[in-house]
Amino acid sequence: MDAIVIQILNGLDKGGAYALIALGLTLAFGTLGIVNFAHGALFMMGAFCAVTVQKLLTISARVRDMSVTFFEAYKETPYLELWWGDTGTTIIEYSVPLSILIAIPVMALVGVVMERGLIRFFYKRTHAEQILVTFGLAIVIQEIIRHFFGANPIPQAIPEIVSGSANVGTMLGLSDTLVYPWWRLIYFCFAIVVIGGVFAFLQYTTYGMVVRAGMADRDTVGLLGINIQRRFTIVFALAAVVAGLAGVMYTPVLPPDYHMGMDFLVLSFVVVVVGGMGSLPGAVAAGFLLGILQSFASMNEIKQFLPGIDQIIIYLVAVVIILVRPRGLMGRKGVMES
Amino acid sequence: MSIQSTRKDLLIMAVFTTAVLTMPIWLDPIGAAYPDLLQKFAIFGIFAIGFNILFGLTGYLSFGHAVFLGVGSYSAVWSFKLLTMNVIPAVIAGTLIAGLFAVVIGFLCLRRSGIYFSILTLAFAQMSYNMAYSVLTPITNGETGLQLTQNDPRIFDAAAETTGLPITELFGMKLSGYPGFYFCAVLLIIAFFISLRIFRSPFGLKLRAIKSNQVRMNYTGFNTRPYLLAAFVISGMYAGLAGSLMAITDPLAGAERMQWTASGEVVLMTILGGVGTLIGPLLGAGLIKYFENIFSSYNEQVLHEIFSFLPDFFENIMVFLVNPFVGEGWHLTLGALFMVIVIFLPGGIMEGWTRFIGLFTKDRSKPDDHNTPASAKAQTSEG
Q1: ipTM of the assembly?
Q2: Which of residues 270-299 of A touch B (CB under 8 A)?
Q3: What pLDDT digit, counting tens, does each position of A195-212 carry?
Q4: Is position B317 within any domain?
Q5: Which parts of chain A sit beneath pLDDT 50?
Q6: What residues in B contact A294, CB-CB < 8 Å?
């Protein structure tokens, strides 16, 4: 029982990341009909928002290290600590959560610029061409990031309070050997909140209702005199923000480097296909499902039985799904079934 | 008509053969005439020609072609390890085994078209790549890459007395440097000839028909799948051939050759040169490899020298502006160039060329219909 619970928990944070990225991909596909290979790059940009914020907060001055008395020693101390003492230290400690505030406007801007600047010219062109141009864009973004931040992963700190492990076992009334890192638990909850927010926005606001109507029948909504194009652009920006936030919060789990976007891109496309192209609940469900499936596949008992299964399980599921049920788990009948 | 076109093809082949074989001469002025780079031209040329048979003719965009390249390399190195250092078995093994993989993967992937096909090939590519790194380590030697060692069996070779690693050879002729290039060049010419024949054949015509409207093909009672599979396997074998040539010029095979971004590279080459044209993919491959070579050798110092004719202030500005695009940042140039091509010139360099020629000739004859909006529209509505 413990083993099963721990595997499910292990899958949740990764599944959360998959679900968030896949949600954005599906939003872009469902509204604009765009297959966006640069979506992984958006995830990566979010992560580098966190890196940038951390770098800005820790701009340091060289000060005399008083604890060394034999010779003149210097150490780097961030200005924030010099100015505000402990408050400054705390601010630096919370750089990742703080980055969320920065990442939202930045990613929204990136999304709007990307849509207006490039993607709107590709509505009418083939999926293959959309894939190609966004693939090119992904390379460009990735190389720009590498130019500024280097090729090595940059680890991110998390606040002291949540650095340990949560005693999930006692919470759930199971054995107390069952522990799980706080941050991953937070990531999962964060993912749920963001996903819930997006769904609530689409479901319960008039704006979201119009967007859903546009997804179902764009031309008719346009004929009603609604500027559906602008709404779709904003939805694309929303997708970029969701991907960016997923990236920001994922930095403590996986130190960001410039090609993390490409690594996650393929996985999240697979997630989208498994969930069903254009189905938002499908993307979310498939994200968590595949995350959990992957963590089960990396159990030793299963690996002994089927060596290497943990490496390929997600792709295997995707291949089977595409071949057997191309509309995915929750896709609408008749949509993208060819 | 047919005699004329045969004559035209003969001419094309003659010009092509001469051009390829004299590459060491006419590439000398631009500093590209050394064996390593020429070999790369030939190898990636073969890879791109093969990819073009699939993507250019049928419009099926595969993002997993690097798998066949990797499989070809591994098979060739194993042939060196187990059989002999002669390259003939290696080439045959690489091509055939890649072909086998292509039959299996193609059989499954071609059940879907459009974006699903791309994602299926992507999934297979990632599976192969991950497996090569983890479970298949006994075959692929994992992260280190598969290498030759001195005490490999090599059952057909006499025991080597020399120390150091054996060198690939063709019946006693060492295949490094220029002989290696000429070997690749001959295979490139053969590959190009086969591709030319496919383009001109009824088979090629059927593939193009599939690209322009597969649904209509099916309605006329035409089973398209065997033709698609044949095209997929042929292009997989081209990739396998290219992979085995890579192993011949440098007997080492690593899994990073199979990563999906490596598949992306051949897509870039084909698009850059011109999808669906005969010579375009070759041009793209050559250009990318050439500029990769030139650009990655630049660094800040070289740039300072280049712009040294400017006043200091402007020199620094120019260096600052150009620096991100060269050296390590060469991929940035590539990505940007690629975007520009896809946006403004979807037919690649070849389309640019025909447009350029069209400016000077009164004869506004219709260009080939591979990339006209009509066929593009047909595809959209189908997906």
Answers
A1: 0.83
A2: 270, 273, 277
A3: 999 999 999 999 999 998
A4: no
A5: none
A6: none
